[in-house]
Backbone:
């Protein structure tokens, strides 16, 4: 597949030496996770892109309640950025547009390991619960 032949706004990924276009709900999920896991201010071109979620790693977390509240803030921040982008991207299909995203569950295993469920829903109504395990050390 020739990437130059893809429509404007296409997201591409590598798979076993072949370049494939990511479409539909997977494109939405890829875009959401990219924003969530990008450190805010790290892009020289888009300084406001990203969240503070990556700074949890290596942080000094002592209160699980504040960590869980922070996760909600980081997911809300990423959702707001994706929705703003979606408003300026008329080529996206309803499966590729974000309707909502929230933390659907949180479970702590010990002081350095936890899991949360990211619940992403597209404008078409498709819901994608994504469990994300996190180990801080």
Residues:
């Amino acid at each position: 597949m020739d990437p130059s032949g893809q429509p404007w706004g296409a997201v591409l990924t590598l798979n076993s030496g072949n370049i494939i276009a990511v479409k539909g709900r997977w494109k939405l999920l890829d875009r959401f996770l990219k924003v969530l896991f990008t450190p805010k201010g790290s892009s020289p071109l888009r300084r406001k892109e990203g969240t503070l979620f990556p700074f949890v790693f290596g942080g000094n977390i002592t209160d699980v309640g504040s960590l869980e509240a922070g996760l909600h803030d980081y997911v809300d921040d990423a959702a707001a950025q994706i929705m703003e982008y979606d408003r300026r991207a008329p080529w996206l299909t309803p499966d590729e547009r974000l309707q909502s995203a929230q933390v659907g569950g949180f479970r702590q295993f010990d002081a350095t390991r936890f899991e949360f469920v990211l619940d992403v829903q597209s404008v078409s109504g498709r819901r994608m619960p994504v469990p994300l395990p996190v180990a801080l050390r």
